[in-house]
Amino acid sequence: MSETLPQARADAAQDGDTLVVRLGGDWRITGRHPSWAETIARHPAQPVALKADGLGTWDSSLALFLHAARIWGQKQAVPVSFEGFPAEASRLADLLSAKPDPSCKPGGLPDLFTALGGATFKLWAETKDLAQLVGECVYSVARFFRGHAQFRWRDALTEMQQCGAMALPIVGLISFLVGIIMAYQGAVQLRQFGADIYVADMVGLAVVREMGPMMAAIVLAGRTGAAFAATLGNMKANEEIDALETLGVSPVDFLVMPRIAALFFMMPLLALYANCLGILGGLVISHGILDIPASLYWAETKSIIDLSDLGTGLIKAASFGLLIGVSGCLRGLQAERSAAGVGQAATAAVVTGILLIIVSDSIYAVIFNILGW
């Protein structure tokens, strides 16, 4: 026969001006046990003394009972004392008391001026960090030309392979599809006016001046910029960057500059590759839908594109490479020393890189329009 466990009990008895509640038996969360509301229901608000009387085994149900008594005492503004309870039960009840009340809801939206002030301070701090990194990179370039920089071309070549040759498939696919989309949309409109051949002009100029460098830059911002931030953030979490500084090695020379140089040299080449694939996508649509011969499409493309168009795209591509490298390395160096910090740094690197690319492209559009390019 199974042994019957003593049932949890809470007996309340008046002792002068104090209500004495004696707890005994086995308190188990899966069994029957009294609640504080039932125990105190027939008694007015007055000082309460809880005492352990023949207390057996217990679990969190006992801590919940003690916690409920403490909360009741705070609400009724009467003292509640505990005598003879295990220290672990009292400690668990203290932990429950420290937990915020789930009924308390956060306040409304922050004040508009407070939010604007906080955003302004954050923007100013980000600007200072970016300016500091750019300044350190400029000093690193000066040290490089004087022969004093701790810069290794082997690291730069490795990064060139990762951000250049390894990015060719995704850059080519996206550029080809963008060319197809632009040619198809242009063909739908131009066919109404019998100007099918001008699809070559539209696709050629748009790809060479804008879409080729832009698509390559956005792909690398998501692929390479995030990788830079994650790598440097992980090195910071593992204190590898601190070790380099202790050994007298500049992290900017040794880690940042090879990555920025790799992007600076590879982005124009990727932009040229993206231009070719984008024009090829337009050719496929023109030949398949508009029945324009490939030779005629190519001749029209060459007639509309000159070196100024090609040069503007290459200038943008090189600038985009610098921005992606700086944003990725900046977020990596700012990362918190944890796995979550590394992930946040990678996300911030992508957002920052794309934002800088869009802003710089709009600035270039104004400058090139003023210069007549």
Structural notes for this entry:
- There is one protein chain.
- The chain is of the alpha/beta class and 373 residues long.
- It has two domains: 9-98, 2-Layer Sandwich (Transcription Regulator spoIIAA); 119-371, no CATH class.
- Helix content is 70%, strand content 9%.
- The protein has helices spanning 36-40, 60-76, 87-98, 112-146, 153-163, 168-190, 198-237, 240-246, 251-289, 294-304, 307-334, 339-371; strands at 9-15, 18-27, 48-58, 80-83.
- Strands 1-2-3-4 form a four-stranded mixed sheet, with helices on one face.
- Helix 9 crosses helix 11 (307-334).
- The radius of gyration is 35 Å and the shape is elongated.
